[in-house]
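Recall the central idea of this unit: under ordinary conditions, the amino acid sequence of a chain determines the structure it adopts. In this exercise we apply that idea directly, starting from the sequence alone.
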Amino acid sequence: MLLSFRVENHKSIREEQQLLLTPTYDDARPESADWEAVTVAGIFGANASGKSNLLDALSFMQDLVRWSLNNGEPGSGIHREPFALNAEAATEPSIFVVDLMLSGVRHTYGFSINGAQVLEEWLYTYPKRRKRVVFDRDGAEFEFGDRTPAKLRQVKDLTSPNVLFLTVAARALNEVVEPVYRWFSEELFFAEERSSEPPAWVTERQVTQEQLTRLSELLRSADTGVRSVELKTWPRNTEGVFVSLEGRVVPPEEWDDLRKEETEKIARGEGDPSLFSAASSMIAQTSGPPPRLLFHHGDPSVRPFTWEEESQGTRTLTVLGYEVQRVLEAGGVLVVDEIDARLHPHLSAQVIALFQDTVRNPHGAQLIFTSHDAALLGQIRGERVLLRDHVWFVEKDLRGQTTLYPLSDFKPRGEDNRARRYLVGRYGGVPDIDESTLRDALSQGDVETRAFDPEGVPR
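Accordingly, the structure predicted from this sequence is:
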């Protein structure tokens, strides 16, 4: 589980901000759960206040952990986006830190970077709640704990200044760092952007029939008019066709497994992308049309809708529904930017409730989302959607700096009407609107009829 995330000097975030998921109140977790952290965090704030930048910082950290070895060409530096409204920020480091609970042991991993190199990087574990150093990096200097194996110590000689040590160590199959790397690579998910293209899990045949059945149930329950969802595939024209890769002859029935294995190897820096590309090309030529997701409405005799023909709302609900299923089944963290742009408040409330249900969420999967929708701060159909420890706000000050703070700072009572208090500005996080100027700016009629003197000055 994610216990906390800290970031400093990234986009609109100038000073360190922390999203802390360990609870303050006793009601934050079901009594039957052994969760170390809350499973829901909703972040509310005005437009352009920095909500998305906070999520982007976590995405940036994930990308650097996964791909710094692939992208870290010698002398190429590190592409980052420090706070842009202060010249000094460009010369100061950007810092990213996560606290994780993995298999019952707390792990703290973080790094500090500038545009040229990794300045600092560290990994600590806390077995039996006592700090143990795995590695501590200061530029080109490394310190290791007494129990750090020799195999991991040797990785320092293979680590370039602009590459994370964790990435190199994980690619070298060091078991000590593997849990943290796996969390970034396999347990942290970002909901796909709304797109006119079908999601990747359709074209890559990653969806199971059970998942399609659940998606059908979801779309029916949401009153979309969709009765069922079908993944349409076509038989491959594979007679007498085999793919050879590095001396291995692969029959058609093993192609999907081959594609998955080689993709994972290339992601780890192993394998030969050019050879796999040639094999993939041959597979594509004999695979027929790509799979298509079809949406059946009402009468079975009526032609189903294709992805392109279906409504935007149904498509976004389909994509998010798949992501929610995946993380609830396996555990991990699902991050959704602007959940209110994807779902009606009633549906958002149902999704949030799933993450608080110990039966439907047996692995303690977590949902982190941003929203403008004050309805989620109150009650929907008589049930409170978010508890006190689930709510966070962001504001941007006059210097353009984002501040993140929890609802718990206001000592809220359980019976407070939090939606109303938020809308009237009791918690901050709402836009400070000059209503008169806004009306003038949006009123075309006023602009057209306003009189001007010969010098162009309004009379």
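The longest helix spans residues 51-71.
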